[in-house]
Model the fold of this input.
Amino acid sequence: MESLRVALNAVVPFIIYLAFGYILRRAGILDEAFAKKINRFIFKGFFPIMMFRSMYSMEHGSGTRPAFMALLAAAILAVIFLGILIVPRFEKEDGRIGVIVQALYRSNTVLFWIPLATSVLGETAGNRAALLLAVTVPLYNFAAVILLSHYGHITGESVGEKIRDILTNPLISGSIVGLIVWGTGIKLPSVVLTPINAVADMTTPLAIIILGAIIKFASMKNNLKYHVAVIAVKMLLIPLALLGLSFVLDLSSFERFMLVTLFAVPDATACFNMAYSMNCDGDLAGELVVSTTVISLAVLFMWIFLLKFFALI
Done:
């Protein structure tokens, strides 16, 4: 099955990068303190370039309905709102609350969602799906900065300073600049685009290698309840609810697939980087990135099989 091949191609390199970082730490080549400094460097220096490239490379005029884009935004905001209401009932530590809520709503749309749409539905669908990043990526980042700033107790002296902190967050500033360049139709020369692409391409592998060097796999057993809860809610219950909603709204096959799989794909790698950089539980965030990525292999196969078996896509 082609979709399984796509999922394997996304997950296996992730595991290899993770193992490489872990081996580097165990061999004493990369210690945890230095890895955390590199993680901050990646967050502030590399992620803005990757966000810029994601926005800049979107297809124009893909035919995606604005109403469906608004629906995606509403679904993400609804999960955030429900997470803020429900998670504190079961977890009292603020740094963990922010991480868990972020894990529930934030997906790896660039590495998993768009390639999956191309594989399952074809190249045209992939081009249409790419435009949806204009909704998901900025919304993910704006929400994460506000959420993690609150639960990480990062406070400014005034409302103006808080707004400045949000707008100057590396992921958001990169996204904004990318959207501006994309929206104005400016075409960058290859001499500029080549290094941008090079830096963007190395961002995710480097971030995952550092995750492997920092994460403490032994602690995952102690945090098992968080992993089970996030995977069950994010990758199973939310997609199931959205599948039902797709019938109520009479969505097309393409729209149904994109809506259901939006939360079935694993957490974004940036969840880990942002949590560490904003005084939240970075260890738990990293663990959730790992567990949702590994489990996604089975979960995505299940959802695609069911959607195809019942002729829903």
User: Anything to note?
Assistant: The chain has one domain: 2-309. Residues 2-309 form a domain with the Na+/H+ antiporter like fold fold (CATH 1.20.1530.20). The chain has 15 helices and no strands. The first helix runs from residue 2 to 26.
